[in-house]
């Protein structure tokens, strides 16, 4: 936020108070998820030396949030307090009542959380409130699940098992909830680039009947995320899809819009539509509808490529899934690289660098 974004009619003391007001992340998140943008209008008495804390926070929110814009700010010679008014930024849709909310000094003396909840209570109808609540419930549940999965990955010293746990996070209904996920790795790790990728691991059903059987089994057992991760770590994962994936090789082409080439050139996940495949090698995965490709990279080096889709449920891929997928893949890349480095160091400690034979330390740990 730049100092000159605040009206020059405000005193330097008030401008400083607004610029240094703290905004809780939860309040920022609430405003970023409002169904429509709002405008904040402010009237301040000329004798006011300090704003109520919630008032300063709201003005700052209007300066940093895309969903709250700072409207007219006036200095009232007669008034000795602060008045604020919140209204819709856009014209009121047909069939909806006009809405505005006067925020007087008694309300602004309360905590920002109380002020925001008062606004939400009058602004949102029951359906909008339910949607907002559902969004935050999804975010909270997914973040907790991903935290648990990441913690399990950190506790595992075996790269292969850790990567299976990663795939379980992508497919688990407690976390990202995709039907299928597969991991491909570059065939040659030392060529400086990425050519052909080979399938190494996958979790997911091989057909619709198997998908329904898995869903029924999961619902019947009603296992939590920790129990599902434990099953995966112990090797209790479905292999029908994996058997097929391990026969596949994916190769980028020079065709315009080639999905592999685009995914390998970007840091975040990319969503494509199976109805318009440009890369012929992807057809072997038999995607239907939208599917996702995401490069797993660390320090500019491609460690692998993840494929995920909802082949059997037919659900789309929404924005929150992409956001958390990107976060999860970044965490995975760091863990993957660290585990691989740990295995390399342990191997080098047990092998003579000149002869390549096992040394004394290797036999002592057998």
What characteristics describe this protein?
elongated, 2 domains, 366 residues, four-stranded mixed β-sheet, alpha+beta, Beta-Lactamase
Q: What portion of the residues fall into strands of 2 or more residues?
A: 15-25%
Spatial separation of the terminal alpha carbons: 61 Å
Task: Kindly provide the name of the CATH class of the largest domain.
Answer: Alpha Beta
Helix content: 40-55%
Structural class: alpha+beta
Q: Uncertain spans, ≥5 residues at pLDDT below 50?
A: none
Instruction: Trace the largest sheet across and list its strands.
Output: 7-6-5-10-9-8
Shape assignment:
elongated
Supply the number of helical segments.
13
Q: What is the H level of CATH, i.e. the homologous superfamily of the largest domain?
A: GAF domain
CATH architecture of the largest domain: 2-Layer Sandwich
CATH topology of the largest domain: Beta-Lactamase
Overall mean pLDDT: 81
Largest sheet: 6 strands, antiparallel
Supply Rg.
27 Å
Overall strand count = 10
Order of helices and strands: HHEHEEEHHHHEEHHHEHEEEHH
The domain count comes to 2
Describe the structure.
This protein is of the alpha+beta class. The protein has two domains: 3-124, no CATH class; 145-350, GAF domain (Beta-Lactamase, 2-Layer Sandwich), CATH 3.30.450.40. The chain has helices at residues 12-19, 25-32, 53-64, 105-108, 112-123, 126-155, 159-171, 208-221, 225-233, 240-245, 259-264, 319-350, 360-364, and strands spanning 38-45, 68-76, 82-88, 100-103, 180-186, 197-203, 249-250, 270-273, 290-298, 301-309. The strands form two sheets. Strands 7-6-5-10-9-8 form a six-stranded antiparallel sheet. Helix 1 crosses helix 3, helix 6 (126-155) packs antiparallel against helix 7 (159-171) and helix 7 runs antiparallel to helix 12 (319-350). The model has no long low-confidence stretch (mean pLDDT 81).
């Amino acid at each position: 936020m730049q100092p000159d974004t605040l009206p020059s009619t405000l005193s330097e003391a008030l401008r400083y108070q607004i610029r240094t007001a703290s905004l809780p992340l939860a309040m920022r998140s609430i405003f970023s998820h409002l169904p429509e943008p709002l405008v904040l209008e402010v009237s301040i008495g000329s004798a006011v030396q300090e704003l109520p804390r919630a008032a300063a926070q709201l003005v700052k929110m209007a300066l940093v949030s895309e969903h709250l814009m700072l409207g007219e700010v006036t200095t009232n010679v007669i008034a000795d307090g602060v008045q604020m008014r919140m209204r819709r930024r856009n014209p009121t849709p047909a069939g909806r009542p006009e809405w505005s909310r006067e925020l007087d000094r008694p309300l602004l003396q309360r905590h920002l959380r109380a002020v925001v909840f008062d606004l939400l209570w009058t602004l949102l109808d029951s359906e909008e409130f339910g949607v907002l609540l559902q969004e935050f419930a999804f975010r909270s549940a997914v973040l907790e699940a991903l935290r648990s999965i990441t913690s399990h990955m950190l506790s595992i010293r075996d790269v292969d098992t850790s990567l299976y746990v990663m795939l379980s996070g992508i497919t688990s209904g407690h976390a990202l909830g995709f039907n299928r996920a597969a991991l491909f790795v570059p065939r040659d790790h030392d060529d400086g680039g990425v050519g052909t990728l080979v399938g190494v691991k996958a979790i997911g059903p091989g057909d619709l009947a198997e998908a329904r059987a898995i869903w029924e089994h999961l619902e019947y057992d009603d296992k939590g995320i920790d129990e599902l991760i434990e099953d995966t770590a112990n090797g209790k994962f479905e292999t029908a899809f994996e058997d097929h994936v391990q026969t596949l090789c994916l190769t980028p082409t020079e065709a315009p819009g080639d999905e592999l080439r685009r995914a390998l050139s970007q840091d975040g996940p990319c969503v494509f539509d199976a109805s318009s495949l440009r890369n012929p090698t992807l057809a072997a995965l038999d995607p239907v509808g939208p599917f996702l490709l995401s490069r797993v990279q660390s320090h500019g080096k491609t460690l692998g490529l993840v494929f995920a889709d909802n082949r059997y449920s037919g659900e789309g891929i929404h924005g929150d899934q992409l956001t958390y997928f990107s976060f999860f893949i970044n965490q995975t890349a760091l863990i993957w690289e660290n585990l691989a480095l740990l295995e390399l160091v342990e191997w080098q400690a047990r092998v003579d660098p000149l002869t390549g034979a096992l040394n004394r330390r290797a036999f002592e740990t057998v």
